[in-house]
Amino acid sequence: MQNKPLFRVKKTKLFKGNLVSLTLSVIIATKDRLQALTECLESLQRQTVPPQTVIIIDASANKKAEVTAKRILEKENINLVYKNSKPGLTYQRNLGIRQNPNELVLFIDDDVILDSNYIKEIKSIFLNDPAGKIGGVTGRIQPGKQKSILSILIRKIFCLSEPGRGEVKKSFANNSIHPRYVDEMFEVQWLSGCNQCYRKEVFNDFLFDENLASYAYMEDVDFSFRVGQKYKLIFIPHARLVHNIQVSHDTRLRKREKQRMFMLNLYYLFKKNQSQTLTYKFCHYWSYIGYLLRGLLLERSFAFTMGTVQGIMMNLSGKNPLMKLLREK
Asked: Domain Glycosyltransferase 2-like spans what residues (predicted)?
């Protein structure tokens, strides 16, 4: 499966009336993060072009999120759809899709804060594409810390994720958007899970993979990469947001378990989505050395390194439980 070439998209101005006529739902999967969700909803309330509907799929033990959402969204007459759910990001998002009444569907994490023009910017891209060739878009996340030279070298040499132009590597590692490119608009090969918007027609052919349970590492790469085989995916620099990573890095899963899960998911998605030629296989297995070096030299974490080792051993020994599900499918 070859990587698709990138191209730039011309930005044009649109009247606000057109932006309002294109209807949009926001889907938020959440669990026990009321403060983060509150700040996220307040950023939706401040949109210059607000969404028609907010769909909250809540796996919390109580319904405080519903009460809070009603209080915030009713100020802008935004329709709220609230569903209680079992936990699981991919399951929750698919449940949200089934509730959608609108033309566009925007998925955001419960710990993001959108710029006030975010929805206006993403709607403008779809309105400028009457042929429907663009299936999904993602916005500009406020840059995090710069990576060290050692980190960049390890990532580049061993086919790990690195700052780039939104490519998916042969190893199935996914490149982020490098700061030098954040002012350009161009086609990418995957969309960030914390902010990704699609035409409703996409869901006639694609849903999130519910085999990816719990944190569902790389569910965004899997879903958007598959969508990208049929539609164009676009990075929009003017649709800005902040992703409060410090909120996401809680203690629900231990570091060892998280990294083991990541390695299992990576192998499963590589087998599911990538060509199985010798070159692709070499890049994937070569990346295992890079993840080990990352744990030892960059993370300097015994737990991270052991999680990597456990995941690699399960992949190589045929004990990855996801592979049985893939074969059955």
From this structure: 25-161
What contacts 281, CB < 8 A, 6 or more positions away?
Answer: none
- Report the 10 Å Cβ neighbour count for 5: 6
CA-closest candidate to residue 111, choices 247, 257, 271, 295? 247
Query: 């297995």: which residue's tokens?
Result: 285
pLDDT tens digits, 257-312 = 999 999 999 999 999 999 999 999 999 999 999 999 999 999 999 999 999 999 99
Give CA–CA dist 106/317, Å, rounded.
39
Domain residues of the chain, as ranges?
Answer: 16-143+182-248, 145-157+253-316
Residue 153, H or E segment: helix 149-157
Q: What is the 3-state secondary structure (H, E, C) of 266-318?
A: HHHHHHHHCCCCHHHHHHHHHHHHHHHHHHHHHHCCHHHHHHHHHHHHHHHCC
* Concatenated DSSP letters of 39-84: HHHHHHHT-SS--SEEEEEE-SSSSHHHHHHHHHHGGGT-EEEEEE
Q: Is the dihedral of CA 146, 300, 168, 93 positive or negative?
A: negative
> How many of the other CB atoms lie within 10 Å of CB of 322?
21
pTM confidence score: 0.92
The CA distance from 167 to 86, in Å, is 33
Whole-angstrom Cα distance, residue 73 to residue 76?
6
User: Which tens digit of pLDDT belongs to each residue from 225-243?
Assistant: 999 999 999 999 999 999 9
Helix axes 64-73, 34-45, angle to 10 degrees: 20
Q: Is 16-143+182-248 in CATH node 3.90.550.10?
A: yes
Tell how far CA 270 is from the center of its chain: 17
